[in-house]
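ok so i was messing around last nite and threw this chain in just to see what happens. nothing serious, just curious
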Amino acid sequence: MRFKLEQGDLGAGFEDVLATPHLINRWLTPKSGSPSLPQLETPDGGWVQDSSAIVDYLERTHPASPVVPDANVRPRQHLACYLIELLSDEWLIVPACWERWHFSQADNEPNHRRFNEQQWGAFLKPEGNGKERRQAAATFFDRAFGIDLPPGEKRGPYQGLVELGCTSHTLGAWRQFQEDLLMALERHLERHDYVLGGRPSLADFSLLGPIYVHFCRDPVAGFDLRTRFPLVSEWVERTNAENSLNARRYGQKLYKVDGSGVLVAFNATSDGGAWLADDTLPPTVIPILRLFFDEMWPYLSDSIDVLTDFIGSAGHALGDELPRKTFTASPGFEALQRDQGELTTSFSIKGVASRRMVVPYQMWMLQRMISALSPDQTPVLERWLDQFSRGKDLLLLNERLKGCAVEKRGGLLFSRASS
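result:
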């Protein structure tokens, strides 16, 4: 939204409202049916919940400065954006959340629990003084998360990590995935300012979510990012477009003095400040996409089969509610999404096998990704996808998703008949 505003494509702009517990319970949930954040109130009084849906809404209503390349003109770049969005939102978030909560437990060093109390307290008790804000967070961590209980008794994000397949058995593999992604992005940023060249896209804003909030802001991970991945740190400032002390923002003018002593503005953004021409993807983006196909795509493919079987079973009637997008098993669906439940599946991360819950929201994201792909572009995409493990399977998604079609209504998800 800041990007579109700076490009003159957002009219009078927007107000960024802190969603306190009072507003979540008394305003957002009654309006949208969901307490999940973020939510956008539109000028006509409508509500859009979740960052992906908000991006879709803004692309439709403010198209002059797009962040998603046109699928008819740039099919490879278009698809790459959505694949990286899935990888960021639904896979990278796992080690990101582990970083936050592992280093918030009392006995772990280094430790950033006090910082976490400060930032959560600013949300939980914004009207309180500094001491009261921190105490509110400390109390919440204890009651809601069981932050200092033994491992098997913890709740909240600790339980969510288990349900997402991050355990002592798989932790090293998740952290290796995190390392591989950050290293690939660091190498890419040696040549380009953004994922697709010299202009930000959905791929950048999606990666920014977990990297900024967890790997950059959280102190323990933030030290590691700044000292080992300085170009990623610079990209965070540039893409976030706030507090850009060292990183030039998109469109920011730099100045030099010409031979006549006159101050002249120039643009130093890579690639002429544009996405690469001819639907080109930099070679340095391929390792990031390969992480999607090697690590996440087999799990998504199996999830399609599991959700299809569940929707077609006697335990579900077409049109009924499905588990929503949550970091933990959705309320009311815990037995299905935990342990060996009907909505779990085996998966592998860096060759380490385990089990995790199936998330119907990811099927909605896949539907959304393929809905814009033109059949005319299939030959182009088929050749391009051939370099990835099971890459061409993506082109079969229309048929495979028919048995697990998902409808999103605000923050809630429902099964629906395939169109």
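not much to say yet. Residues 277 and 394 are 24 Å apart (CA to CA).
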